[in-house]
Amino acid sequence: MNSNSAFKALADPTRREILAMLRNGEMTAGALAGRFDMTKPSMSHHFAVLRDAGLVTSRREGQQIWYGLNTTVVQDLTAWAMDLLKDNRHPKGKRS
Amino acid sequence: MNSNSAFKALADPTRREILAMLRNGEMTAGALAGRFDMTKPSMSHHFAVLRDAGLVTSRREGQQIWYGLNTTVVQDLTAWAMDLLKDNRHPKGKRS
DNA sequence: CATCTAATTAGATAATTGTCTAAATATAGG
DNA sequence: CCTATATTTAGACAATTATCTAATTAGATG
Fold this sequence. Notes:
The radius of gyration of chain A is 17 Å and the shape is elongated. In chain A, strands 1-3-2 form a 3-stranded antiparallel sheet. In chain A, 27% of the residues are buried. Chain A is an alpha+beta fold. Helix content of chain A is 53%, strand content 15%. The longest helix of chain A is centred in the C-terminal third of the chain and has 15 residues, at 71-85. Chain A has one domain (4-85): Arc Repressor Mutant, subunit A (Orthogonal Bundle). Chain A binds chain B through residues 1, 4, 7-8, 10-11, 13, 16, 19-20, 23-25, 69, 71, 74-75, 77-78, 81-89, 91, and chain B through 1, 4, 7-8, 10-11, 13, 16, 19-20, 23-25, 69, 71, 74-75, 77-78, 81-89, 91. The first copy, chain A, binds a DNA duplex through helix 3 and helix 4.
């Protein structure tokens, strides 16, 4: 499966926080990094993991790089989790 | 956060497959292990991770241990993912 | 109680990961 | 072209993790 990288990306609390912040719109690498008690290279690493997993988009604008939430992949993850909740015990005639 | 262990549990593909199988109802440790190309101790380790994360329930019945999906925690994860999709850019008057 | 089956625990090991510091790249503006 | 700012890349290191084999626990049954 390809979304394995997305699940692995979500395993880190810092990365989940980053995603939560991006819910309010795009942010630059620097602005994001400034919100965490962690060095910029470490944050940069987290950005790369999120980008490689397809969870965020990135674009350079001058000296800065803007990161944004990629809702498509988040939707896939949501669908996966919701699927788990669909009772599959009687696969023929859904309604018990 | 406490659900950190749940996210970490989901990071492994074998564990995600286990959860998917439990969608069809409870299974014994042995029955589950039989479905994977992996030793029983390794599988047992994955069961423990899932149980510690609250993603599965377990109960002994004689010699066997039955594992089942804990939908409550799965619901929490679903809610977290869906929250990410709610646009929060204009927090006062929700409807753009 | 001896033994069989089901499952876990213990302990080792290789691979992956998260973090850091130092160095490099990229862009903007004198 | 030099310097300042923004960000990433490189390389090292400690911690965590996934897996294995061997040993152990727990229950059933003759």
